[in-house]
Design brief:
mainly beta, single chain, five-stranded mixed beta sheet, 2 domains, seven-stranded mixed beta sheet, flat, Immunoglobulin-like, 0% helix, disordered N terminus
Length: 242
């Protein structure tokens, strides 16, 4: 299997969980899920800005209060062979993709299923790391990923029906939700070629204030809100041409 043996002799460098926006435009994101106590929930892992990946070895760490019950492959990375973890009780688990040809698809690459504790409230972290040389393209060149951690929050609090979003104190956007569900707000900045250059993600709240550090080089902002349980948009997206 390409490059896997070389991992054994590579210098292991643990990447920061939340690298800055300049690290890479290829983003690996673990969803943030809000649910009731004592339930079973799916947590998708997504990739965006994929320029072509032929192999990936990714470690997933999760809070010890969570019980991992299943791991399924997603629709993305369809050209690659997926190897799930040997034991669901391991923490971290290792997810492996490998192929002859690189895959440049975006979307959900894996879905983790957890049994959550029987607690009234709580936040349970889930995050990813990879070693140097662990992500590579069809020419065996290393690929850097920006990693966005996720997790599971147990809460019975009701969510707002409209979100007020302020960007760089210049743009004020109101997103009325289709229904009072829980989810995330995605604020994406693109350049003049349509390439994603910055991404901010926030849990739904009544007011969101954000700063896009690359706004001076961006050409378009897109603001979206997605439901975490159904993976469906919660409202119409809003686009701003800069």
């Amino acid at each position: 299997m390409k490059r896997i043996i070389s991992l054994c002799v590579s210098v292991v460098l643990l990447l920061a969980i939340l690298p800055n926006a300049y690290a890479s435009t290829t983003v690996l994101q673990i969803d943030k899920i809000v649910c009731d106590k004592d339930t079973t929930v799916d947590v998708p892992i997504r990739i965006s800005g994929n320029t072509g990946i032929a192999g990936a070895v990714i470690k997933i760490f999760y809070d010890n209060n969570l019980a991992l019950t299943d791991v399924k492959r997603g629709d993305a990375f369809g050209k690659l062979t997926f190897t799930p973890p040997a034991k669901m009780t391991s923490n971290p688990i290792t997810l492996l993709w490998d192929g002859i040809d690189e895959d440049n698809s975006n979307g959900v690459i894996a879905i983790l299923t957890f049994k959550v504790p029987n607690e009234a409230n709580g936040n349970y972290r889930i995050y990813a790391t990879y070693d140097t040389g662990g992500i590579y393209d069809g020419n065996l060149n290393d690929i850097d990923l920006s990693l966005i951690e996720g997790g599971i929050t147990i809460s019975n609090e009701e969510q707002v029906s409209e979100i007020d979003i302020n960007i760089n104190s210049q743009y004020d956007i109101k997103l009325p939700l289709n229904q009072s569900e829980k989810g995330n707000v995605y604020i994406a900045l693109y350049d003049d070629q349509g390439k994603l250059i910055e991404l901010k993600i926030y849990p739904i709240s009544e007011n969101i204030v954000t700063q896009l550090s690359k706004i001076n080089t961006g050409k378009r902002i897109k603001v979206m809100c997605w439901d975490n349980e159904t993976l469906q948009p919660q409202c119409n997206s809003v686009e701003i041409n800069l």
